[in-house]
Amino acid sequence: MADVAEAVRAEAAALHRYPDRDAVALRTDLADYLTVSTRVVLSEANVWAANGSNEILQQILQAFGGPGRSALGFEPSYSMHPIIASGTRTDWVPVPRRPDFTLDTERAAETVRERQPDIVFVTSPNNPTGGSIPLAQLRGVLAAAPGIVVVDEAYAEFSSQPSAVELIAEFPAQLIVSRTMSKAFAFAGGRLGYLAAAPAVVDALQLVRLPYHLSKIAQAAARAALRHADATLATVHQLAAERDRVVEALLGLGFTPVPSDANFVLFGQFADAKASWQSYLDNGVLIRDVGIEQHLRVTIGTPEENDAFLEASKEIPR
Ligand code: PMP
After folding, report:
1. Ligand 1 closest atom vs CA 57
2. Which of 100, 144, 291, 314 is the S-S candidate for 112 at Cβ 3.0 to 4.6 Å?
3. pLDDT more than 70, % of the chain
4. What DSSP element (H or E) covers 77?
């Protein structure tokens, strides 16, 4: 926090000037971070940044979607994908996941071949269900897709699975990996999302970005936060261990948690999820009803918060 504050203070003297519209220093730092965390060597030419990954997704749809084009996603997944598609007049093609929320990637590849969408969204780890897609299966979807495949890796740091960044060299004209500092970096208020792709994809996004979209303050604050990536990732590992503890404990209590690589766990079964959500709240625990029948989603917190959640879980009507 001190470093972020100092970085912002230093920028304050220069706020009468526009920021670097290409955010080269920040993109270089993000490329270095990805190179270290995925062991795939990337440069700033592979990386683009915006105000949260929602803006990244919107720029992708502005550049590659639009009237007469379509985007396909596997549901349930991140609810903003169809909303941003609709805002850019891109037709949305929803394809259901299996009843256990995993993706039947062979069928997915078939559907992609049939529907020929201009853009395919794969969220890995998936929000709100938590599971991720192995790279071998992702390859099948990429091979079937006629256009862009966006792998939304907002929760990637919480997962032990390899990143889709490993496949960029193999599918340079297709693959875009979307990332954010909102989750693992605990930087949601700083608004910093980014993507990794081939340099030509990054060039294409220059056609739709607004001039100076990323403020000097956001760029400087994000660079300061990135200097602390090691400490941040140590916390992320603790959180992932807590997640696994919570899943085990839920199993012990007779719940059916969905295997998660993210910082939340979807779990059931509840006869009336809405009533059970209220019962958690009455016990002082606020979790989420994400609209999936018989299920609720808990975000992993501090060990004390997780204990309070598990204690309340013993009292909840199912
Ligand atoms: N993708 C996924 C899968 C998300 O869950 C979220 C936030 N909930 C986002 C993208 C967008 O986050 P942000 O704009 O803060 O980067």
Report:
1. 10
2. 144
3. 100
4. none
Angle at 8 between CA 222 and CA 205, to 5 degrees: 40
Pocket of ligand 1 (CB under 6 A): 52-54, 78, 123, 127, 152, 154, 180, 182, 188, 193
CA-proximal residue: ligand 1, atom 4 (nearest): 154
Measure the CA–CA gap between 57 and 38, rounded to whole angstroms. Answer: 21
pLDDT at 1: 94
Calculate how far, in angstroms, residue 211's C-alpha sits from the geometric centre of ligand 1: 23
Cis peptide preceding 128, ω within 30 of 0 = yes
- Rounded to whole angstroms, the Cα distance separating 263 from 298 reads 9
Closest residue by Cα to atom 2, ligand 1, is 154
Residue of 90, 181, 109 lying closest to 149 (CA atoms):
109
Number of residues assigned to the chain: 318
Atom of ligand 1 nearest to the CA of 155: 3
pLDDT tens, 125-181? 999 999 999 999 999 999 999 999 999 999 999 999 999 999 999 999 999 999 999
Number of other residues whose CB lies within 10 A of the CB of residue 302 = 11
End-to-end CA distance of the chain: 42
The residues pairing with 179 across neighbouring beta strands, listed in sequence order, are: 194
From residue 292, give the alpha-carbon distance in Å to each of 144, 154, 207, 272, 288. Answer: 29, 21, 38, 11, 10
Beta strands in 97-231 (DSSP E): 119-123, 148-152, 175-180, 193-196
Q: Looking at ligand 1, which atom is closest to the CA of residue 54?
A: 14
208: CB partners within 8 A, 6+ apart:
59, 62, 63
Interatomic CA distance for residues 29 and 178, integer angstroms = 16
Distance 80 CA to ligand 1 centre (A): 8
Mean pLDDT across 261-278:
97
25: tokens are 């220093």
